[in-house]
Amino acid sequence: MTFQKLLFGVRFFTALSFVSWTAVLFLVDPGVAGIVGIALFLGTMFSFLTGLFTVVLVGLASRFLGEMSASASFHTLFRQGFILSAYVVSLLGLSRFGMLAWWNALLGFAAALLIEFTARKIVS
Predict the structure, then answer these.
(1) What's the CA gap between 91 and 56, in Å, rounded?
(2) Domain range spanning residue 103?
(3) Distance between CA atoms of 103 and 107, rounded to whole angstroms?
């Protein structure tokens, strides 16, 4: 599979995830749906943010490092987009349940960095 086909697939996934997230945003009432509605919202937002962060990171890598370097490090950029979206969604989840504090955000960021550094060490 070529890099352009892979990038098209990620963009298509991101657009589809955005449509599903906006559908959940406008059609599901979290007061009525309860935990299922919140899980749908956070799950669709997670898939959308994963695709969005991946596309943005690939675009930045292509611009500053060249397309060959971006295609060679696509799996790393996808992993970083996944970790970043998990961090953002976890902050939103903590905020929804009233448990978000600045130190939680800082600990979550430190955990995301440790996961990335560990994954980078394992892969290389």
Answers:
(1) 20
(2) 3-123
(3) 6
How far is CA 114 from each of CA 27, 30, 108, 119, 122, rounded to the nearest angstrom?
37, 33, 10, 8, 12
**pLDDT profile of the chain (124 residues), mean per 10:** 89 97 91 88 96 96 89 92 96 91 95 94 83
Question: What is the predicted pLDDT for the residue at 110?
Answer: 97
Number of domains present in the structure of the chain:
1
Closest CA to 38 of 48, 24, 50: 24
**How far is 84 from 116, CA to CA, in rounded Å?**
10
Beta-carbon contacts of 7 under 8 Å, excluding residues fewer than 6 positions away, are 55, 58
Whether residue 70 contacts residue 62, with contact meaning beta carbons closer than 8 Å, is answered with yes
